[in-house]
Amino acid sequence: MSSNLIRGTFILTLGTFISKFLGLFYVIPFYKIIGGDEAAALYSYGYVPYTIFISIATAGVPLAVSKYIAKYNAIEEYAVGRKLFKSGLVMMMMTGLIAFAVMYSFAPFFAQLSLSGEETTYTIDQVATVIRAVSFALILVPFMSLTRGFFQGHQTMGPSAVSTVVEQVARIVFLLAGAYIVIHVLGGSVVTAISVATFAAFIGAIFALLVLVWYFFKRKKHFDKLLEKDKGEADVSLVGMYSEIVLYAIPFVFVGIAIPLYQLIDQVTFSRAMSEIGLEGQAVAAFGVLNFSTQKLVIIPVSLATAFAMALVPMMTSSFVKGDHHTVKRQLDQTFEVLLYLTIPASVGIALLAEPLYTVFYEHSELGTDVLRVYAPVAILFALFSVTAAILQGINEQRFTILSLLTGILVKLSLNIPLIKMFETEGAVYATALGFGSSIMINLFVIRYFAGYSLRSIGKKISMIVLFNGVMSIVVLSLYGLLSLVLSTASLWPSFLMIIICGVAGAIVYFALSSKTGLLDTLFGSRLDGIKRKLRLKKA
User: Fold this and answer.
1) What is the end-to-end Cα distance of the chain in Å, rounded?
2) What is the rounded average pLDDT for all residues in the chain?
3) In whole angstroms, how far apart are CA 113 and each of 123, 284, 286, 359?
4) What global pTM score does this model have?
């Protein structure tokens, strides 16, 4: 794997991980402030439609633009990328305003859809208020996304990573402070507090945009120097440019809205299915567990896949355009190896420690524990889907991304209600797993057919990763059983202590086995050697 890909992936991974971890840990105080799973469900009612709208409004811009710019930069046609950036800023402003107007105007419709036409814990007007509050972020985010794509296309990942972290920090500070003041200072309602919390997305976007503008002017001299090297042989019209961008972007849109679409299916069908088996009284709280509480924990390992996808596409496109298929295969090998090496133990660890984890982040809950335990392994599927879809972009077979996602959605739609009736809340998780599994199988088949690549080439390393996770699981479960004799998973601090002890022990076993067998050096050799050299220099 090239040093640029390693560096770019590392920077984006670091930024994404920081952002995701902030997004994970804020839920602890937020959950306490708003008061439980039903309020969390209201938050999800607003955020799921917003996530879909923002994916459509940005039209997969960061990845699509980065791929387009990387393609023309590879042949030293730098002016094409600058032309796209200038015109795209105007286009994204218009797209954002239109998306905002539609979401704000049709908020009552989306609210009615979320509640399946039945007002239970919350009314349609209350849900519509939350949806309208979050819709303001649509005005700024498309503009911001285009700027991130411009930087990534130049293989400059720092601005995207820093702006992502700043956006998250600003959003969380406003969210927590606003919700707390509304409920505990002003004595306001939960609906008002949740509305303020969702409006925080707009505040975060403002701060992120300021960071990106600062970076652009700081690096403008470098970008201008590239323009001086422009060959000037490519005459691409705006119509041709946007036609190509649309072809790139449409699959990215589908990838971006994959998880939100699955959540939307749950949002529309969950209450109805639960009502049909006589559990309508538990539906809102259970939906909060499914689409907010456990989802926040499960999505953490997926952040690695997101970072890989963002860094992989422009790099792979550059190699593919140059006809360097050997480099493409090497990039694919190490991408899958590192991805599985990190996401599998993270997902397994969450599943093994589901009960104390749920207690620490929220409260002791049998339902929360059961759902988290079965949901955690699905993170591996989320990650694989993101990366395989990114690979299809890199080898210019993105049309199959749409086919695979639609197939997965069809599986989810077909099985969701029957599985919820059979397994209650966990049934929705099973339907999601089957849907994503179907999409991944199609993506892997297409990659094998058009790129001649198969996971069999790294089968030995995958087997080692699985084996090491098995050994790690035995150690963690044994230690967990012993600790359960003296510590209670129903209490916060004992649960926290169990997570630390079991998590550290599992990590030591996993990395020790990897180091002993040479797997760690194979995957991260150059990076580890660099770290070791720096440590030796510091000691000297």
Assistant:
1) 31
2) 83
3) 12, 14, 18, 32
4) 0.79
